[in-house]
Amino acid sequence: MWARAWRLGLRALVGGRRGFTCKADTKGSGRITAEVIEHLERLALVDFGSQEAVARLEKAIAFADRLRAVDTDGVEPMESVLEDRCLYLRSDHVIEGNCAEELLQNSHRVVEEYFVAPPGNISLPKLDEQEPFSHG
Amino acid sequence: MAAPMLRLCCPGRRWALACIDGCSRHRRGAPNGCTSSRKRGQSSVAQQPFITAQKPRKGEHEWAAVVGLEIHAQISSKSKLFSGSQVHFAAPPNSLVSFFDASLPGTLPVLNRRCVEAAVMTGLALNCRINKKSLFDRKHYFYADLPAGYQITQQRLPIAVNGSLVYSFCAGKNRSQVINKTARVKQIQLEQDSGKSLHDDLRSQTLIDLNRAEGQLRVDANISVHHPGEPLGVRTEVKNLNSARFLAKAIDYEIQRQINELENGGEILNETRSFDSKLGCTIPMRDKEGKQDYRFMPEPNLPPLLLYDTESLPAGADPQQVIDIDRIREQLPELPSVTREKLVQQYGMLPEHSFTLLNEVGLLEFFQNVMKETRAEPKKVTSWVLNTLLGFLKQQNLAVSESPVTPSALAELLNLLDRKAISSSAAKQVFEELWRNEGKTPAQIVSEKKLELMQDQEALEQLCHAVMEGHPQVVMDVKKGNPRAINKLIGLVRKVTLSRADPTVIKEILEKKLAS
Q1: Nearest CA to B242 among B33, B41, B39, B46?
Q2: Which residues pair with B241 in a beta bridge?
């Protein structure tokens, strides 16, 4: 029990995400591979930190899959619940802006009215580049 | 967010299904060259480059290159595509940014009517089919200048599709041969622009300005090569093309690079490359990891965009809230090809001249204003405008609007020339004087510099007689049949008249005297 608490603590320290080493043995049909999870995490910056999260994802997919039971032959797909609404067209006048000071207050760092960001995208380390984890 | 942009879509590899037929550009010289341009906003479209063919080496299979252009052009509007903040260049950073543009939670996009009209106009001008229903999507990727993490665009069903642009270019000796080509336009779509990033390498940071309006016209090229009849090759995307010249160079280089690579047994990676203008080559861009997955999804906050025509316009609809394609078609200005055709028909102008007239801002208007005030022949006017005026302007790098010679002044000058009040060499002199812009009219300059042609026929005849008397040897040569001798006589008379006599008239008089 003490060992397990230590493990959890260590995971929390490293941010949890990278501590998840058992993605391959997911519950369920295992149709979500480690590669897909890693791909999704990279694309969406979503943290599937635990087995439960992946299981939840699989349940969500299974739930959505139930749509396949419906025969939709010849039925035009609905792309948006707004499809019957009118798209409002705004006239081309300047009515907003000019609030740089207010907006810049949101930024952690500012240089002369510019938002400051890191020099480029910082890539997520790949799965095999992560710190090896002992979970014995 | 978003300076409003239109993006024209090209038949490159990504959309291979739609555009394989007839879209190859053969290395042996381009019989049916096909590049398609995507345009994003304003009504000027980048001219397509002319690719020179090379002789194929022995034993070489014929290669065909497929080029697609993605053109981003900013729409000329007062406010942005999805927000009411101003569109203006060179404003203080982040001063033209609304809460929506800064992607603050709880803000929603509101579509700008003027941008839709601009997109429809562009589609009509490029012979597209306007989709009466078009949809907005989100294109996701992470970058500091895209605070929302996605860009609103039209990927599934854009506002206009399947257009074409007929263009011509002058080739051959003297650029006198006009060749017509057609570029297919796959689609035109409305989309947001991202912000502007200033890279500060010294302090290892990037400064972000969400004003947008970064570049009014940008082009990316997609290039692949294949053997005709075989499937299309892997394409690369080339960015950082800042001029039509570099666009042409980059495409030429990339086609050759791909051919060389493949002929040496290598393979082409589906990557993004940057054009190095100094070295004249394309290099892989770092920071681009493989193929991007943009996770397109419908924009949940925008219903479909519906357009109407006079037939389908709902009765009693608020005119502010509906867009009538037919009305917009009526408001289209005369397109350049129609103007050029009119010039050729009306004035008997050579096609290549009609191109030059239209390619220079304000030159057509200048020409038309001169035509209004002169009796001179259109061919003469064309020549003076395209050769003399344009030559002087180019030499001093001036725009037509900055010309020191006004259309009226040139018209007056051409009238003097037309009535044979001055010779053409005198006219050139007068033009140079006018260029000095000292406020004198052509008539004043002519009289000041005594450039008028002699009108007194009798006095001229006497001078001819005197010259003939004074040069009996030359007269003998003429009578003997020496063809060049007459020119010598004419030259002598001209000298005596201080170049104030029309050489043709001199020749007539001399010939008459010699005959008698």
Answers
A1: B46
A2: B219
Closest to A103 (Cβ–Cβ): which among B97, B293, B305?
B97
Dist. CA B472–CA B479, nearest whole Å: 10
Q: Which of B76, B78, B79, B87 to mutate to test the interface with A (most CBs of A within 10 A)?
A: B79
Structural contact between residues B221 and B77, judged by C-beta atoms closer than 8 angstroms: no
* Residues, chain A: 136
Per run of 10 residues, the mean pLDDT along chain B (length 516 residues) is: 60 30 31 32 37 48 93 93 93 95 96 97 97 96 92 96 90 80 96 90 92 81 94 91 91 96 92 90 72 87 95 92 96 92 93 90 95 93 94 93 94 92 87 90 88 82 87 85 84 82 83 82
pLDDT digits (tens, 9 = 90+) for B410-441: 999 999 999 888 888 889 989 999 999 888 89
Sheet order of strands, B205-209 included: A110-111, A114-117, B205-209, B196-200
Q: Residues 130 to 169 of B: which have CB under 8 A from any A CB?
A: 135, 140, 142-145, 156
Q: Does B197 touch chain A (CB under 8 A)?
A: yes
Contact A103 B102 (CB under 8 A): yes
Tell me the residue ranges of DSSP E strands in chain A.
89-90, 110-111, 114-117
Q: How many CA atoms, within 13 angstroms, populate the side-chain half-sphere of residue B364? A: 17
Give the chain B residue whose CA is nearest to the CA of A115: B208
| ipTM over cut 0.95 | no
Between CA B162 and CA B38 the distance in angstroms is 11
Distances (CA, A) of A72 to A63, A78, B147: 17, 11, 38
Q: Is this structure's pTM higher than 0.80?
A: no
